[in-house]
Predict the structure.
Amino acid sequence: MAKVKTFKTIFPAVSVPLNEDYSINEEEFRVYLRWIKSFYGKGIEGLVCNGHTGEITGLTRAERKRVTEICAEECGDVMTIISGVNCENTQESIEMAAEAKEAGADGILLMPPHMWLRFGMNPNAPFEYIKDVAEGADIDIIIHLYPATSKAFYPVETLIKMCKEIDHVKCIKMGTRVTSIYEHDVRLLRQECPDISLITCHDETLCVSWFPGMDGALIGFPS
């Protein structure tokens, strides 16, 4: 049976076991991934590597690619493989997204540049950033939405524009974490962009965050 890529499922954000010298413990990682794969068909149709749970900020660029390769080798025959991209500039984000694709990823989880958390951003910057990475790497994207209380939060109008005008945007990881804004934005996105998958990442309030009718979750908890 041919693999079916999906963005409507529970995505465990997988951890990466390390050796004492902080290199990747590939043997233990493969055992762990095979255990994750045993839940395929039971609500878990994909996984995310190189997320915050997967130590993305602590891994080198080469290690991030290797992590993606291992996930694809162990689970990519049936599961949707998503790799996180975290970078401070557009060109390198495109390069890392292309490397993830080369390593076997079906899509990327694209985080905002973290300098935006401190300094904020031009209102047009998020759309242009997502668009440039999508086109430059030719890969599907899960938008990583940061909390509404942060300076890197994308307003719902920006999300709608991304979903309608960037074909590679398939899913939004709704990390809003302010309930009134979260529920308002989910309902508006459902109305304006019905084909886009909306998934929760609220580990701490998982059941409550599912109530608006989410398509799944991307969380560290199931890993």
Notes: The chain has a mean pLDDT of 96. The first strand starts at residue 10 and ends at 12.
